[in-house]
C-alpha cells in the first residue's frame, strides 16, 4: 500500500516538541531502560487521541503512567486526521438553529452503522460526547465557532479544530500528560503482552535487538491504532479492497491487536473497513476536497455526477468502486478551496505539481486537464448550480447542504479513488472499555480504546465520530485502569 502523507505529517508535527517539558519526555536512550526497570501502574500502548486521553485520565487519578509509542513521533493517525470531532453542542448548534438530541445522535450512529454496533457502546459514545468536548477545550483544545456536516457525518455536529488537522489534540493532550508526570517513549514498539494469573501484567517492548519487559502494577490500556496499513490483514478480511492505497500512518499494522487476540481477547467486526476518497492505486497524493459536503461534487470519468455527496460512506465507497477504473473526481471552485485549512491547500498544491490535481480558469479548461468531456462537465456544474439555487437536487443531496454554487474561478479537481481510511473492527470491549474474551467476559487488567477496538461503529462509521470514540473511550479506559483494585 502506498503511503502519501509524510509531508502533511511533518507539517503537523513542526513545533510540537517545543512544548515545555515534552522534548525530554520523548528522549529515549538509557531513560527507556530506567523506565522499564521502574515499571508503572498503568501502561498505555499508543499515543494518539485515545492513548493520550487514557494517559491523562489515569495520571489525573493518581496513577504512574507510561505511554509506549511504536513510531518515532507521537500522534498516530490523530495527528494527520481531518481533526473533526462529533458532539452534541447546545451552544454552537443552538446558535446556528440546529436541532439535535442524544436520541437522534444515537439513532444516526446505530442506523448508519447497519445496526451492527453494540448499543451500549453507541449510547456511551453519544452521552459522553459533549462532556468530552468540554474536557478537551478545558485542556486548551480550540474549535471554530460553527459546526458543520462533515462528509459522511449526516448532521451538523462536527467541530472543526482551529489548528490544522489533528495537531491541536496532540499538543493539548501531550502537554497535559507531561504536566501530570506521564512518561512517553517513542520508537518503543510493543511486541507482546504479559499475563500473570490470568491478569494483564505488562508488555514486552522491542529495544533495538533486544526485548524488555515493562511491568504494569494495575492495568494495560491498548490504544495502538488500526490495521489499515496492513495489506495482509486487509486482504484477509476484505479481499475486494486489497491493493487500494491507505491514508493511515505506516505504523497502523495491528500487531498489538493480534497480540491481545493471541492471549484470548476476542475480535469483532473485522470485515467492516471504511474507505474515503483518495489517491487511486499507482498514485501518490491524496487531497481532501471532499471533507465539507456543501463545497464539492463528485463526477465520474464521463464528467457526470453519479451520487449525492452526502450519502453514507459505505454506499459512496461501493458506488465509486463500481465506476469504470474504480475512479472518480472531486470538483470545487476557488471559494471552496479557500474555505479549507492551510494543510489541505498544501496537499492540493503538492498534488497539482505532481499532476494528480488540476486547477483552471474555466470549467472547460479544467475538463481538458482532467481528461473528461468538457461539455458534460460544464453541463454537470450548471445543473448543480441550479440545484443549489432551487434547493432541489435530482440526486437527493440534502437541501441543508445545497449551500454554495461552483461559480468562482479558478476551479479545482483531484482524484477521488477509494483509499482505506478506517477499520471499524478490532478488539471486543464493553462500555467500561474492558477487553472481552470469546465468552464475553472481561479480561482482568486489560483495556482498549480507539481504532484498535470494534463494536462502536458497526459496518459504517459516521464522519467525525472517530475522534469522539478515541477520546470518550480513551478517557473511560484510563479512569478504569487507574482505579482498578489489585
What is the strand tally? 21
CATH class of the largest domain: Alpha Beta
Strand content: 15-25%
**Domains (count):** 2
- Compute the CA-based radius of gyration: 22 Å
The CATH architecture designation of the largest domain is 3-Layer(bba) Sandwich
CATH superfamily of the largest domain: FAD/NAD(P)-binding domain
State the end-to-end distance.
44 Å
- Shape descriptor reads globular
Largest sheet: 8 strands, mixed
Low-confidence stretches: 1-30
Family: Belongs to the FAD-dependent oxidoreductase 2 family. FRD/SDH subfamily.
Keywords: FAD, Flavoprotein, Oxidoreductase
InterPro entries: FAD-dep_OxRdtase_2_FAD-bd (IPR003953), FAD-oxidoreductase_2 (IPR050315), FAD/NAD-bd_sf (IPR036188), Flavocytochrome_c (IPR010960), Succ_DH/fumarate_Rdtase_cat_sf (IPR027477)
Organism: Mesosutterella faecium
What's the layout of helices and strands?
Elements: H1 6-13, H2 22-26, H3 30-38, E1 40-45, H4 49-60, E2 65-68, H5 76-80, E3 85-86, H6 90-95, H7 102-112, H8 119-127, H9 129-138, E4 143-148, E5 158-161, H10 167-179, E6 183-185, E7 190-196, E8 199-207, E9 210-222, H11 231-237, E10 245-246, H12 255-262, E11 267-268, E12 273-278, E13 297-299, H13 313-321, E14 329-332, H14 334-339, H15 342-353, E15 357-360, H16 363-370, H17 374-390, E16 411-415, E17 417-423, E18 426-428, E19 434-436, E20 442-448, E21 453-454, H18 465-482
Parallel strand pairs: 1-2, 1-9, 2-6, 9-20, 10-17, 18-21
Antiparallel strand pairs: 3-5, 4-5, 7-8, 8-9, 11-18, 12-17, 13-14, 14-16, 15-16, 19-20
Helix pairs in contact: 4-10, 4-18, 7-8, 16-17
